[in-house]
Amino acid sequence: MAEAQHAISEAKHDEKAGSWEPKIVGFLCNWCSYAGADLCGVSRYQYPTNIRTVRVMCSTRISPHIVLDLFKAGADGILLGGCHIGDCHYISGNFYTEKRVRLMKKLLEDAGVDPSRLRLEWVSASEGEKFSKVVTEFTDHVRKLGPSAVKKQEAAKAKVMAADDASVTFRLRALVGKEYNLETKGNVYKNTLDKAELEKLIDVATMDEFERSLILVLAKGKSRSVKELGSIMEVPTDKVLRHIVVLRQKNLISMEHPEGFTPTYRTIEIGGEQ
Amino acid sequence: MAEKKAAANEKPRIGVFVCHCGSNIGGFVDVPSVAEYAKTLPDVVYSTDNLYTCAEDGLASIREGIRKHDLNRVIVASCTPRTHAPLFQATCESAGLNKYMFTFVNIREHCSWVHMKEKDKASKKAKDLIRMGVARARLLEPQEEAKVEVTPASVVVGGGVSGMTAALSMADMGFPVHLVERDGELGGFIRNLNNLYVTEKSASETIKPLIEKVKAHKNIHLHLNSQLKGVEGFIGNYEVVIGTKGAEDLKAKVGTIVIATGALEFVPEGLYGYNQYPNVVTLTEFEILCKKKTLPKLKNVAFIQCVGSRGQVKSYCSRICCNVAIKNAINIVDNYENMLGLMEKSGTVVEKIPVETKATDEIMERRRRRRGRERGEEGEAEEVKLGPSEKIEVTVFNRDVMAYGVEHELTYNKAREKRVKFVRYTTDHLPKVYMEGNQLMIAYFHETLKLERTMPVDMVVLSTPLVGQPDAGELSQMLKVPLGQEGFFLEAHVKLRPVDFATDGIYVCGTCRGPADITECATQASAAASRAAIPMAKGYVQAEALTSVVDETKCSGCGTCIQVCPYGALRKNEKGYAEVIVAACKGCGCCGATCPEGAITMTNYTDAQLLAESRAALEEV
Ligand SMILES: Cc1cc2nc3c(=O)[nH]c(=O)nc-3n(C[C@H](O)[C@H](O)[C@H](O)COP(=O)(O)OP(=O)(O)OC[C@H]3O[C@@H](n4cnc5c(N)ncnc54)[C@H](O)[C@@H]3O)c2cc1C
Ligand code: SF4
Ligand code: SF4
Ligand code: FES
What we know:
Bound molecules: flavin-adenine dinucleotide, iron/sulfur cluster, FE2/S2 (inorganic) cluster
Distance between the termini of chain B: 39 Å
Structural class of chain A: alpha/beta
Strand order of the largest sheet of chain A: 2-1-3-4
Shape of chain A: globular
Oligomer: heterodimer
Order of helices and strands of chain A: HEHEHEHEHHHHEHHEE
Number of helices of chain A: 10
CATH superfamily of the largest domain in chain B: FAD/NAD(P)-binding domain
CATH class of the largest domain in chain A: Alpha Beta
């Protein structure tokens, strides 16, 4: 107990003195990057103490939601480690990881978070030294970026919340789930799609879903006009209106007229708790 | 099941065992304070530190802790789960605790050993890591491992030397085997060949006893003119459809599958005048001519090695062609008249093709020659008997000769002693095949003399690599086993699991997994057969309780998960929802991260568990 209290006062002290330490979470796949981190230890390569690692069987386990949820909770940096392409223990797992990381970075960017706070690295079981280099370098990088804005600014947090919500929409999950196969094996007509075109399509969808999710976050428990939403989001009002049409069709937002003729909108919350 | 539920509903009682690992952890982390800290965490009812948790007294303290404090979850904070998890899990089980209620926290490889100069920070990190472990442990649930029965029967695809050897091995062990061969005959590629290196017999003679045994074996069901048309299921429980020309499809239940579909020879279209000039042939074509005794009359033969391999069209070395070319070069020199069928006509068939392998004479001979050279006497080649070879010149253009191992080097030397010329070329100066009037010619750069040279030839033999079957992709998709970049099947691990696929229950051998000669094919085939026999002999496999679980109330039946699973471990059930084949699922989590409806979660790696563990890292304490 004494120890714990000591830790608490230490943390407070740190903040006051401005000696902030980045909080970094690493997800490592059991077969390569976790083993690489083990070898790093066995070989006594040193690295900064900031990273906290979580073992998963494969990098492919990490859905965008897990990463964005952690950013929402205030992570300063997240490292995903996997096997080199072609070496995934589950054959093709990391192909999907690559696609998902692209989506996560796009969502972070849309949410105003520097996407380099998320890093994907391939580290094999024999690359102990590489692991220490990766962690050292990434920790320094995150330190330079400074603390995540999520912890201090409500607006920043709202955006990351929206990004997280967008990441679990059917449309984005289905798109990014099918992306790899569409690129390599083709659609039902056996036509493979051009990579650049597919990425463009996904980026547009990502931006749409993010903006719609942000509208729902902003209008949660607070009725807002299109103009108001547009100015907070820095999105043209006609685009906001188009999103609202879609959200109304999906029965996710309701229209209200509290101020005469200007309609305002409020997120419909399922399960009460308005 | 009842026991499992009861345990799941119980309030967590967590015990934490922090290890000093001698001074490996204790020297760099304040272990007692870390163990003290653990006591402050939610649901932790007991915490202690051990000098060596993995030693007998450490394990005893875990067992005692479980009994004394009625622990229903155990955390060991020590080294790496990759080596020690099984030991601690077994310890928990021996004290009546489900092994899935155990959590490993790595404070050695991931903490004390990588932060050796910052004891305070390392100790704080160790506490954080344990807090993360506790967050995870609180959400654990006991799991039962599924036991899956294995049908003790196998299907082997491909009836070459590999497929036959594998089938015969398993049949001899008493397992019924379906042997599926696309052609109307057994034997595979060997049927093209004249003789085999380092044996004196013809290829068909060599393979005959094997074919006869296979045909006669009561446990082997031979399906000629047949192909695998469909496969469903998973280890122990495959249902295969065997399609035979002109017959009805046959369904068979098998527990394992062995792939032995062989390879083809690369056709050097557009290289060295192939298909452009007469008498430019591939190695296989040459062997066929020899075998049929239809070689034209020749004075001058050139082999060109590495045609289309090692970076030309294919990146790899085909492993066998040097030795095949050497074999053929010796055959021509020694046995030319027989190969033309001349001796046969005159009634003096030479049965034996003399490729000698007697090491002692050979070595003595080489030593004598080397001594001769050392004395500056270059010309003692006359000591070697010249057979009918004077009639024919053989030149092997090569990048370097890969005559590896014991016999091949000797055979290579034999060829040189028989005046087969080995001329090196580099990729900067490829030999050129062309016509001068009616004469086939080779132009080449003599690397030693640094001179451009030309020579007339009667025949050019191109040594091209073995290449994967053009339709291997279909089989790969049907079975969900991978093909490598070069079109050969890809084993689970190049060093440690050379004849397994990553998918349990499917095995691979022979040239379909890469160039190999017959000895190597037979070795691999025996290995694949014994690997396949393991689950069949045992009768069951136990699946780790680390699989995906579909929530039918959320699943929309979109099928995305089925597309992404590398093991074919998901299928649609009769209601149209996704269903996990527990025995086939490897627990990678790809489907879970993919499912657009969020309908899939992983046992023992749920979103809630992962998020609790990682979020705990961010807590301010
Ligand atoms: C020119 C040349 C000379 C050689 N000389 C020698 C030598 O002297 N000594 C030596 O040791 N090795 C030699 N080899 C190598 C030897 O031929 C191979 O190692 C051996 O034949 C490979 O046997 P396998 O059973 O793996 O494949 P294969 O013999 O190719 O057999 C594969 C079988 O599978 C069948 N098949 C393919 N696809 C399917 C399908 N989808 N469904 C059902 N059946 C299918 C094929 O019809 C074939 O019968 C030589 C090779 C070449 C090219
Ligand atoms: S991806 Fe999800 S929703 Fe689609 S079939 Fe699979 S489990 Fe069902
Ligand atoms: S967890 Fe992996 S192996 Fe299991 S069903 Fe999902 S994708 Fe397939
Ligand atoms: S197992 Fe390492 S990335 Fe898949």
